[in-house]
């Protein structure tokens, strides 16, 4: 990573909206955040902006937690894992790998901290909020000379002293010098005005400008001049205090001045070749879209090579820039979606630029390496969970793409062109079937031309299946053997209403051949025990007998889930996750239950 500056590699979020506890979201080139609406994609981008000091935390950002004071979590935090090159390690006196977090409690006041040695003296643990007189007093206490030193220099000396006098590691105040080295973030939303896009990218360049040494010198000089001027202005007040208080012999007023320039707004003025002024708010969507596209494309050059990015070891390396797109393909047709993807590719080619994109677009999802795709969706508790493919294996590629395509939903192109349609009951089957089919048949559902969707207790899903069947499309409905008596929509009369005399040909009852009631029951006790020991360990070892005891009772899956919750410290959040853990741990086609393999073979015939 030579030539990068404080490079953010991944981040974790706790207590931010639906992101109650999501770990290791990667920062790639680009990273694609996929998933359904309200799954946490925009929250993930906002949490990243909060880490990089570009998002102001509000009460609504704090995760809702039932039972806690005010209904909100006690702490919101985003932890970033950074890599520093040799220049940064030397100049910032930090290790090559750095963990930094930004957090806030109920008061919404954010604080930066780094993980490392914690000073033994409590006075040295939180220095950022102290004023100059307090810092000078501490420096004198520990024999640190402060003559002609600026506040950042005094702080750096105290932080270094505290690190050298510590007995254990933990979170403590971040050295101020690190703040100016953090990555810059440029944020673009699909529905935002072009002015917002320009302001975002210019803000990045503005921060780089302010970080230049000569500019910093002028700012410090301005602060010094202002501080001296305020001392002169305060002299009559100090003299008046001495005059009115005989017991006081001397009064000195010391002012702390901080000049923090900001890029407040950007105006975009346009004029046509005819001389006519252009008002964006009165322009058509096409004109606004072309202008926005030009702005996004222009950022590639504007952010490509910031000042100072050469090989001179004494020259500060460029600051990492993270471009965050929130659904940039919104309301764009296919042609413009392809253009957006090309723009993102070019931007990510710059050595110091990374791109994170939240999107529904399969064009964007298909356009990157599958390892750079993160799937975010809500679990049963309305909390965002993350799935990510960590293997470059081809079968893993297809398996994961199947999960993503399912989360995005069936597109018109799928409905028009896929050869076979498989309807399953709910979320559990939606997650597990693509993995099991891939392992059994050696190809993904997509490669076999099979589209999958979950009925989810919705009669409309059966109406869609009925429509496709009437138009001579191949359809299969796969449901648990016990569903007919437990669910209204899967009762025989309702199925006949949709599929008529073809009901028995279209419907597959899972477990009917094996004497089981549901999908989970098809997996043998040894498979369940092996999965449980790896995914949900307990005190002792899970044995096949633990699972055999629940067969033949009221509901195998519910009983197993309850058992795992009672006896495992880390238990599944629900049935979908429980069976997903089973499926991803199978290694051979023979590991897939034989009844399922038979159904998959029938699907291949239908799709062929």
TrEMBL record:
Domain OLD protein-like TOPRIM: start-end pairs: 421-482
Pfam families: OLD-like_TOPRIM (PF20469)
InterPro entries: Bact_Antivir_Def_Nuclease, P-loop_NTPase, TOPRIM_OLD
Source species, domain of life: Bacteria
Protein known as: OLD protein-like TOPRIM domain-containing protein
Source organism (scientific name): Nocardia rhizosphaerihabitans
